[in-house]
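Input record (one chain):
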Amino acid sequence: MLCSNHASFLDGFVVFSSLPFHNIEDVFFLGYSDILGHPLARWELKEARLISIDSNVNLTEAMQAASLVFSRGKVVCLFPEGRRSIDENIGEFKKGMGILIKELDIPVVSIYIKGSHRSWPRASRLPRFCPLKVIFGRPLAAKDLLGKKEPGQDDYEAIANNLREEVLKLAC
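The corresponding structure, as predicted from the sequence alone:
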């Protein structure tokens, strides 16, 4: 699994273009159905291996789709904040990715995209030219991400919070 900060419409394209060419066809991207369901984006869902989800309505189906991709030896890239941030600050991570990591026992690689918030801010209609830098962390297992667990916190939430910390480390 690949998990990145999310501050721009360009983030999926940036991660995709940063991957080694021989790995590209094995990567699928989860994206919010309101964006991917837009008529201008719908045509590319199959070609670009985009999985359209609405985690607020059908979280179970989203988890099943990701699980199917993993069972076939493929990789899923998602943006665990669940939406684009307003600025370069990294928001809280949703615990759905923690469920996938723990229950499917899959490794995760954290990613930080530096400059993403300037490339296509939420308030802007069009992208801007600005330098971007993509930083990849090392692969981590669920047991690595369960190391620091707060009292009363479930495993999934601990994984999500600790993975967020890993992304924050890459931002420094």
